[in-house]
Amino acid sequence: MSFVLIAEQILNGLQLGVMLFLMSAGLTLIFGVMGLINLAHGSLYMVGAFAAAAIAGLTGSFILALLAALTAAAIAGAMVEMVVIRRLYNRDHLDQVLATFALILIFSEGTRWVFGSFPLYLDIPSYLQGPVSLPGGIQYPLYRITLILIGVVVAIALGLMISKTRIGIRIRAGENDREMIAALGVDISKLYTIIFALGAALAGLAGALVGAIQSVEVGMGEPVLILAFVVIVIGGIGSIKGAMVGSVLVGLTDTLGGVFLPKILQLFMDISTATNVGSSIASMAIYILMGVVLIWRPTGLYGSRL
Amino acid sequence: MKNLLNVSAGILAAVGLTIGSAVAETKVGMITTLSGGGAGLGIDVRDGFMLAIKQSGRSDINVVIEDDQRKPDVAVKLADKMIQSEKVDVLTGIIWSNLAMAVVPSATAQGKFYLSPNAGPSVLAGKGCHPNYFNVAWQNDNIHEAAGAYADGAGYKNTFILAPNYPAGKDALIGFKRYFKGKIAGEVYTKLGQTDYAAEIAQIRAAGADSVFFFLPGGMGIAFLKQYSGSGVDLPIVGPAFSFDQGILQAVGEAALGVVNTSQWNKDLDNPTNAAFVKSFQAEYGRLPSLYASQGFDTANLLISAIEKADVNDADAFRSALKSADFESTRGDFKFSSNHHPIQNIYAREVIKEGDVFTNKTLSVALENHSNVYTEDCKM
């Protein structure tokens, strides 16, 4: 077990963490402010990736592709909010789950109609390709370092926006007491649409960034959505800070668990059993983490209300 | 999502057909994956199959196609419906081994024929084999065994192997190790559906291997290859065709160039049936066929050859007609082993770029007239 391997795995965990943050930030805001469970958040991630792949295919520019992902996901999010979600705020969670699950199916089949059933091509631009050497002899892909940086920048920007700007004040007020800020003359439905579009845009950005190193295909959003839900439950629903801490915890647990559990088990088992048992425990690791956090803090790390 | 396509082959020809004519109709039920992740595979099998039916010009084969959504429970329901209310004679189409395991045993036990255009789980080749079950593609281990044989022949001594943690993934690594004589530098099972392989690639880097074998079908393979090529690890890769088929290669792009993969079929295999198939598939659907399409095409042609020889209602005669495999396969020589799986050549291919299109070129025969190791377990 070398230092280089451990350092590289920690970077991998961080990178997964910041990408999960982009997904879970929107999810936790939408849940926190509007009290809405949005299962279709993964579809917005997919919309972002497909928009990026389409624009990258047309123009060859990765920057334009990212902008397209942000725009397409934000527009899709705003439209979904105005057409469907708006009718669900006063319904119970079961209705919301049903309606947003229907949205997943509609988005998936709609995407298939437009783009076909085969995965799309989206690659990282040439100036971000290849590995870079970090201190300590670590070779790490430049693109993944860029992902970590983008994630950190977005997290800081989001944090500043929530704590310093007028819209941020409204979002925090909305989380605390919806009726009250409506009574104070804030256009609550416009605020909801903005939050939804913002969350959608972040999901779309994550989809495009991750799509470049994974595959852009129908149904790519749902596995990430599950992880994002784990993140917001761990972090505390509605808390951006919680989403950040939860993302990094889940990212590190998932990555390091998958690598080191089989290795640790090999100390007292034969290799193939250790690999089998280790991989199985590793895939449960984040849920075990979630369980432990919930026993310790039933509302999550930074959650305030039940 | 109910995708009921009642495709009566040669509809034009059927116009003149009088109702209640003496011609016995063979009804085929195709259950395959047409929506959700992995739909590309099912669509290719379906298109290959229907192309062969169309080319045969027969109006007495009625194909009912339904979408299993890659869900075992949906597949079971569809199979029950097809057997009980549609009264099909032959079932086919399933892509995934876990779905095949859910459908095939009960269908064959009810006296129906099942022709597998893809999935070939070891159970159905060994203890669970059935006289009415024929696999036209391969036994699951085959392609991986060929990869092991190729890696061995290429002089690799220390290979890092990885596959998803599910039955077909385990079969894959066992199959590879059965024919690879060198050392295993590391063996990793990834999560099924995993899309980030940074952790595994770091392990490959640290393992000191001289080559990598991986089995990651569908989107998993695309993700792995793209991340691998950007990681700075430049060990040679060997894999089964599933991560390098025509549907996937365009999404992988440059990252796949030069990779050697093993397959029972390639579009440049030199036989007249294959040349005609590739040409007509392109003309019909406007894309190059994948190995799945060739498997669908061969399955339909096997069925047609049996229908020409025997009546499907005479099960024994129909079975022996199927067993004789008297059809022109896109793979050249093709016959069935005692447990109804193909005996065929498996080739090593290399990913190349033809103009703008990424595709495969056949390099050599990795395993010749290859059967499977489960024949002895099969008592029928």
**Rg of chain B (C-alpha, Å):** 20 Å
Largest sheet of chain A: 2 strands, antiparallel
Shape of chain B: globular
Order of helices and strands of chain B: EHEHEHEHEHEHEHEHEHEHEHHHEEE
Describe the structure.
Chain A is an all-alpha fold and 306 residues long. In chain A, helix 2 crosses helix 8 and helix 3 (62-83) packs antiparallel against helix 8. Helix content of chain A is 74%, strand content 3%. Chain A contains eleven helices and two strands, in the order H-H-H-H-E-E-H-H-H-H-H-H-H. The model of chain A has no long low-confidence stretch (mean pLDDT 89). Chain B has 380 residues and is α/β, with parallel strands linked by helices. Chain B has 13 helices and 14 strands. In chain B, helix 2 (39-56) links the parallel strand 2 (26-32) and strand 3 (61-67). In chain B, helix 3 packs parallel to helix 4. At the A-B interface, helix 1, helix 4, helix 10 and helix 11 of A face helix 2, strand 8, helix 8, helix 9 and helix 10 of B.
In short:
The complex is a heterodimer of chains A (306) and B (380). Chain A is mainly alpha-helical. Chain A is built from 11 helices and 2 strands.
SSE layout and pairings?
The complex is a heterodimer of chains A (306) and B (380).
Chain A: H1 3-34, H2 41-59, H3 62-83, H4 93-115, E1 131-134, E2 138-141, H5 142-164, H6 166-176, H7 178-183, H8 188-211, H9 221-235, H10 240-265, H11 271-296
Antiparallel strand pairs in A: 1-2
Chain B: E1 5-8, H1 11-14, E2 26-32, H2 39-56, E3 61-67, H3 72-84, E4 90-92, H4 97-109, E5 113-116, H5 122-125, E6 133-135, H6 141-153, E7 158-164, H7 167-179, E8 183-190, H8 198-207, E9 211-214, H9 219-230, E10 237-240, H10 246-252, E11 260-263, H11 272-285, H12 291-309, H13 315-323, E12 335-336, E13 342-354, E14 357-370
